[in-house]
Amino acid sequence: MTDEAALAATVAAFAAGTGPVAVDAERASGYRYGQRAYLIQLRRAGAGTALVDPIACPDLSALGEALADTEWVVHAATQDLPCLAEVGMRPRTLFDTELAGRIAGFPRVGLGPMTENVLGLSLAKEHSAVDWSTRPLPEPWLRYAALDVEVLVELRDALEQELDAQGKLGWALEEFASIANAPKPAPRVDPWRRTSQLHKVRRRRQLAAVRELWQARDRIARERDVSPGRVLADAAIVNAALAMPQNTPALQAVQGFGPRVHRRQLEQWLAAIDRAREIPEAQLPPATAPHEGPPPPRAWAEKDPVAAARLTGARAAVTELAEAHSLPAENLITPDLVRRVSWEPPAVPDAASVAAALRALGARQWQVDLVGPVIAAAFAAAAVVPE
Fold first, then answer.
1. Which pTM was predicted?
2. pLDDT tens, 350-386?
3. Considering 44, 48, 161, 218, which has the largest number of Cβ atoms within 10 A of its Cβ?
4. Where would I find the HRDC domain in this sequence (predicted)?
C-alpha cells in the first residue's frame, strides 16, 4: 500500500476488523541511518493482511487511531515501537510474544523458534537481513514479510494459555502494560562511548579522538542516509585514536584506512584527529562515562565491602528464584535495580522496606512480590559478620 487512497481503505478495513491486530515493522539496520520503518505489516480478523510503505505514506496516525482501542500483538515490541511511533502508531494495549516466551521459560524466543516450538510451524527467514529500504521491494520479500504477521495472533493465544497454566499471565500483562505506557527514552548521553573496542582506549586525548571521529562519521552518515558502519568501521576509529597519526600517509597506514580510502576522505578523518589534538586539557572527556547511581560492581569490594556482600547475596538469591520459576533472571528483576537497592538499601532492610524501594525504582508489582522477600533475606544474611 503506497498511496493515500489505499491507506484510507486500509484504515477503514482494519477499523472494522475484530480481535487483536498483529503488527510488525521492517527496518534497514546496517544499510540506512537510524531505525526508521521501511515496511509495516498488519493482520486482523475481518481485515486480512496489509503491507504499508511508510516512506510513501509517512503519516499513519489515522491508522494508529483506528487501532487505538485494539490489542496489538507484536514480537519484541521494544524494537518496533519506536519506529512505529515515528509514523504516528502507538498502542495502548499490547501483547509481546517474545517477552511472553521469556516469561514462560522458552529457551529460544525468536519468532521462528517460537512459532516452531509452540505452533509446530516453520517460518522462512531467508530475507531477514535484506535492505528493506530497496524500492520497489521484490515480491518474494513482500511474501516473506507478510508471513511474519500471519501467525502472530495464533501464537499469542497459545502463549496466553501457557502463561495462564503456569500462573504467570498476570506477570506478563504487567510487563506489557509497562512497555505500552513507557515514556519516550531520553537521548543517550555520550553515544560515542558505545563504540566497539573502546575499552582499548585509555588516554583522555585518545578518547577525544574517538569522539571527534565518531561525530564526524555520524554527520556524514546522516547526510548520506547510510549506516555509520558503512562510512567507517568502529575498529578503524579506535585504531586511529590509538595511533593519533600526524599526517595523511600515517593515517593511511592505520588498519581501516587503506589505499581504497579516497584522499579527501582521509583528510576529513585527519581533521577530526587534529581537532582532538587541539582540545585544551581541561576540556578532554573524562576517562569513564558520567553516570548516576552506584559505581561499577567490580569496585564495590574496595569502596564498600558490606554493599559488595549484599550484592553478591542478592544476585545469588535472584538467580535461584528465577531458576525456580523457569525464567531469565533479568526478566524477574532488572540487574540495575538489584545493584541500586544493594548499594543504597533502606535504613531497615526488611521485606516491606525493600519492596517499597524496588517499587520506587520502577519494579512492577509482580516483581516486587517475588523478589522483595528474597533480597531482604540476602541483605540480612550479609549483615551477619562472623566473629
1. 0.91
2. 999 999 999 999 999 999 999 999 999 999 998 865 4
3. 44
4. 203-283
